[in-house]
Specification:
single chain; five-stranded parallel beta sheet; 9 helices; binds 2-acetamido-2-deoxy-beta-D-glucopyranose
């Protein structure tokens, strides 16, 4: 089977972890030198305008590439939803920034003009959500974040956009019991609007990753090296270091064309027909 994945994750989230969490000196100084004092991560949202976002053109390019499915980032680890979620007040692409339903517009273009299966990436956890941090401080014995934010949002996403692939992520600090993943998966495969066609990956809790799921993604850049009994995917990046767009990336920090083709062939060779 011929597989290609376009994982379009939120650009800013990467910068945020380097700045706020790792306190990477280069990023901290850049912020100090270029932004007013007390500039916060959410202050970036209005600068995310997506003015060149052209879903119809993307759909044409994806189709021409031969891709059979795509996976679009609906929400990365900073919690900003690329659709007007009722669970992400003022922190979504309709309320601030693009003022647009980025997920819905792409879903329409893909369905109207291609034969590609439409999939969505979704991060279960959110780095700075106070409810998540509270649950974590409680050793995940409470589920304020799961009940009030991330799960209602995931049901909303499936009911509204009917993705045929759910590429779950951000699971690794907690168990599938904390995330209520089993209940969600049972609903997804038995009762949801996509129950007959949907496929999921394996990142549903630290006990689930690389064990359960429709197909395995295991760790990032997974390349098992030998033929596998189960369907799997190599989630990799063309930038050697980063999962986001880096304005300052040098050309030699990207994989070369040869390296990309090697990786592609190596991956396809180990996926059962
Ligand atoms: C949010 O709630 C409103 C009012 O109930 C509803 O019309 C809308 O479809 C909801 N949005 C989403 C993304 O589900
Ligand atoms: C489908 O393609 C046509 C022709 O290129 C274009 O006019 C239309 O906007 C596309 N539909 C969507 C939903 O993007
Ligand atoms: C969480 O677990 C740690 C380590 O076992 C313990 O020190 C801490 O008191 C626990 N916190 C709560 C709120 O139960």
């Amino acid at each position: 089977m011929y597989m290609l994945k376009y994982s379009l994750r939120s650009i800013g989230a990467i910068c945020s972890i380097l700045w706020k969490h790792d306190k990477n000196p280069e990023i901290v100084n850049f912020m100090k030198n270029n932004y007013r004092p007390d500039f916060t991560y959410p202050d970036f949202a209005s600068q995310f305008t997506a003015e060149f976002y052209n879903p119809a053109q993307w759909a044409d390019i994806f189709q021409a590439s031969g891709a059979e499915y795509i996976v679009f980032g609906s929400k990365h680890h900073e919690g900003f939803t690329n659709w007007p979620s009722n669970y992400s007040f003022n922190w979504n692409s309709m309320a601030v920034g693009p003022k647009r339903d980025l997920v819905g517009d792409l879903a329409k273009a893909i369905r109207q003009n291609t034969s590609i299966h439409f999939g969505l990436y979704h991060s279960l956890f959110e780095w700075y959500n106070p409810y998540y941090l509270q649950d974590k401080a409680n050793n995940f014995s409470t589920q304020y974040f799961v009940n009030g934010k991330t799960m209602p949002e995931l049901y909303e996403l499936v009911n509204n956009y009917k993705p045929e692939i759910i590429w779950s992520d951000g699971e690794w600090e907690a168990s599938s019991d904390y995330w209520d993943s089993k209940q969600f998966i049972a609903w997804l495969y038995n009762d949801s609007p996509v129950k007959d066609t949907v496929v999921t990956n394996d990142r549903w809790g630290k006990d689930s990753t690389c064990h359960h799921g429709g197909y395995l993604t295991c760790q990032d850049r997974y390349q098992p090296g030998v033929l596998q009994k189960r369907k799997w995917e190599n989630a990799m990046t063309i930038d050697r270091q980063s999962w986001g767009f880096r304005r300052n990336a040098a050309l030699d920090e990207y994989l070369t064309t040869d390296e990309l083709i090697d990786t592609f062939v190596e991956t396809v060779r180990l996926i059962l027909p």
